[in-house]
């Protein structure tokens, strides 16, 4: 009975985090962009520091008409938002927040699990683009496929470097093996992993598949109302997952002063700092061209990630 209650408690905690954290990131993006770009709505909506902007956005999406194009593949079109969103819920189950079993489920091959499931989320964009019966949506879906193929490899190689260093594929195990000097040693891998993750999420400046000035928001052109909102929510859920994984793999997760009692707070603070960087990059840099996007992956990130693996091998041999 106690085991069943423990499982239910963990599932509820993961579900609450999945429902709350992406909304907090969305509200933070409203505020950060408002301050950096002088946007009036997020600054004043609701009267007190723009608190009502996110509420207004939610009401706007909820009252919009739900439209399915006449020539669309109806079932695939309606299923795509769920396929884009739900994998991030599964990934959150395996990300350790604190010591002493503060994780939804500690998997022996947790790193392989989270990277595999994150790859499934991109299929939502592919399904949406193909099923919409719209040439702009199809082009956005094809760009998504090309971007996934290009940036999945450096992301896996960077994560493999950390697994080599720790000697385990378990995410809690990787955090337990962390030493403070790993941050410098694995810095190249951290930059590659974080950059490739942004590209897989199609976040600016890697948002060519949703380029509003070229292909009218790409794979999501025909989506309205709550289905469109689910795609946006999947983006923010992806930010939470990416920042959480980067924290666990490269920044020591719960390690910090008094980590035995407030380790979960260190994990959240590090992930929040990375989320701010994600928003900052959106405000600061213009969108890359498609050729620049591919060139960055194949000629820059992949060689750097291979060099990081070689460095990890050398350091491991020297240490042993």
TrEMBL record:
A GO MF term: NADH dehydrogenase (quinone) (non-electrogenic) activity
Top-rank EC class of the record's enzyme: translocase
The UniProt record lists the keyword ATP-binding: no
EC code: 7.1.1.-
Membrane topology: Multi-pass membrane protein
Function, as annotated: NDH-1 shuttles electrons from NADH, via FMN and iron-sulfur (Fe-S) centers, to quinones in the respiratory chain. The immediate electron acceptor for the enzyme in this species is believed to be ubiquinone. Couples the redox reaction to proton translocation (for every two electrons transferred, four hydrogen ions are translocated across the cytoplasmic membrane), and thus conserves the redox energy in a proton gradient. This subunit may bind ubiquinone.
HAMAP family: NDH1_NuoH
Family: Belongs to the complex I subunit 1 family.
UniProt-recorded name of the protein: NADH-quinone oxidoreductase subunit H
Organism: Streptomyces polygonati
Gene: nuoH
